[in-house]
Amino acid sequence: MRPFVEDALELFGPGRLMYGGDWPVSLLAGGYARCWEACLELLSPLSPGDRAAVLGAAAAGFYRIDPALLAAAHDAAA
């Protein structure tokens, strides 16, 4: 999967990529936690800012979600 992620990052950049959990299909690959860990591993070479873009900031910008609401949701989940 790494070559596909690397190609997507090179072609589009982290600001134009959005993480998607692919549930319930992810259940076939061992569950959401396993898929999430694989995603984090694939994104580990990125800077914290680029990783944040792929994992939520790009989607928040696209869907015009107020960053303060996103931060509040993140804090509530922690």
From TrEMBL:
Boundaries of every Amidohydrolase-related domain copy: 2-65
Superkingdom of source: Bacteria
Single Gene Ontology MF annotation: hydrolase activity
Pfam families, sorted: Amidohydro_2
SUPFAM superfamilies: Metallo-dependent hydrolases
InterPro entries: Amidohydro-rel (IPR006680), Metal_Hydrolase (IPR032466), Metallo-dep_Lactonases (IPR052350)
PANTHER family: AMIDOHYDROLASE, AMIDOHYDROLASE-RELATED DOMAIN-CONTAINING PROTEIN
Similarity comment: family membership: Belongs to the metallo-dependent hydrolases superfamily.
Protein name listed in UniProt: Amidohydrolase-related domain-containing protein
Species assigned in the record: Streptomyces ruber
